[in-house]
Design goal:
Layout (H helix, E strand, L loop, with lengths): L2 E6 L1 E4 L4 E8 L5 E9 L6 E9 L5 E4 L8 E5 L5 E6 L8 E8 L12 E2 L3 E6 L1
Parallel strand pairs: 2-11
Antiparallel strand pairs: 1-3, 3-8, 4-5, 4-9, 5-6, 7-8, 9-10, 9-11
Length: about 130
């Protein structure tokens, strides 16, 4: 059973930075997509970023919303079971609950494609 544990998040001022971390355990696949979704009250879950990790390939990264491109970076930490989401130049509209996700296979944007979800981390950006 795949298990995801998130850490990081919290509060920041506009223009500030935060880093989210997600540790995965329990998977035996040769490849996995790990990523981040976010959700605000009354809105659909939005794909933020994903990283495809494989035994055979270098990691393949995706960042989806135009609003975060150039500001958010997803990466694999030195500890290979950990994925990071570095969020720079944060804006009030980035305020949301951020969820770490995982699926066997490539990274896709639809939340329904992900089998595993972390507990969620609140990110609040004040102006």
């Amino acid at each position: 059973q795949v298990h995801l544990v998130e850490s990081g998040g919290g509060s920041a001022q506009t223009g500030g930075s935060l880093t989210l971390s997600c540790v995965v355990s329990g998977y035996t696949y040769h490849h996995i997509c790990m990523g981040w979704f976010r959700q605000t009250p009354g809105k659909e879950r939005e794909g933020v970023a994903g990283i495809f990790i494989s035994d055979l390939l270098d990691p393949i990264k995706r960042v989806w919303p135009d609003s975060v491109k150039g500001r958010f970076t997803i990466s694999q930490a030195d500890a290979k079971d950990t994925v990071l989401l570095q969020m720079n130049n944060l804006q009030p509209e980035d305020t949301a609950i951020y969820y770490c996700v995982a699926r066997q296979g490539g990274c896709v944007r639809g939340p329904e494609s992900y089998d595993y979800w972390g507990q969620g981390s609140q990110v609040t950006v004040s102006s």
